[in-house]
Amino acid sequence: MVLAKNKILGDYDEFDLLILHELRDNGKISIRELSHRIGLHPNTLMQRVKRLEDNKTIVKYTAEIDYSKLGYDLHVLLFMKVDKKTRGDWEMLSKLRAIKSILALYAITGDFDVLAILKVRDREHLMAVTKEINRNDFILETHTNLVLYPFKHAYEFNPFDGKII
Q1: Which pLDDT score, from 0 to 100, does residue 4 have?
Q2: For each successive 10 residues of the chain (165 residues), what is the average pLDDT?
Q3: Is residue 152 part of a domain?
Q4: 58 plus 82 within the same structural domain
Q5: Which one, out of 41, 66, 78, 131, has a CA that is 20 to 30 A from the CA of 149?
Q6: Which CATH number belongs to the domain containing residue 103 in this structure?
Q7: Are residues 119 and 86 in the same domain?
Q8: Long-range CB pairs of 11-15, under 8 A, 24+ apart, other chains included
Q9: Do 11 and 50 fall into the same domain?
Q10: Residues 90-104, buried b or exposed e (16+ Cβ, 10 A)?
Q11: For the whole prediction, is pTM greater than 0.85?
């Protein structure tokens, strides 16, 4: 893989992208195996990984969990409109972060202001979470969509294969 330096890549070279590609696919890979795959000496590789961690390119190492195996069978997109004074008030919106069933929370553009991605066990659990969200006075409206089937998961996203699209 040979990548030219450009606006998209910034200060990252071919080895940085190879490291990110491998770690994105397997965060538990050993330094020895990663070194072998990439072709860098283990000490050099460790310095590069440390730099990527220090500059927050690598934010966190984590496990992807199949929550359906734990009984969380519904994946829900919940769109919310909030009152005008709350739109930029992240402290107020942080009340939503405390709701355990919210997997991700985004400020968005378009017809709604906030998108929550939920994992819930069943319809009753969804109703309870929706009620909890609507207890907040700043929520004006919600719109709920159930995910029927995921065609691509977030953990499958790995743009570090040498093709910039």
Answers
A1: 42
A2: 49 89 92 95 96 95 92 96 80 86 93 95 98 94 96 83 52
A3: no
A4: no
A5: 131
A6: 3.30.70.920
A7: yes
A8: 12/57, 15/40, 15/48
A9: yes
A10: eebbeebeeeebbee
A11: no
> Which residue segment(s) compose the domain that 116 sits in?
67-146
Q: Which residues pair with 26 in a beta bridge?
A: none
Same domain, 79 and 127: yes
Query: Is the residue at 102 inside a domain?
Result: yes
Q: Is residue 2 part of a domain?
A: yes
14-25 helix and 42-54 helix, angle to the nearest 10 degrees = 80
Place of tokens 């972060």: 97
Q: What is the pLDDT of residue 156?
A: 84
Distance (Å) of CA 80 to CA 44, 67, 87, 94, 111: 47, 24, 11, 14, 9
**Structure tokens, 130:** 């929706």
What are the structure tokens assigned to 14, written together?
A: 């071919």
CA–CA distance, 58 with 60 (Å, rounded to integer): 6
pLDDT of residue 165: 41
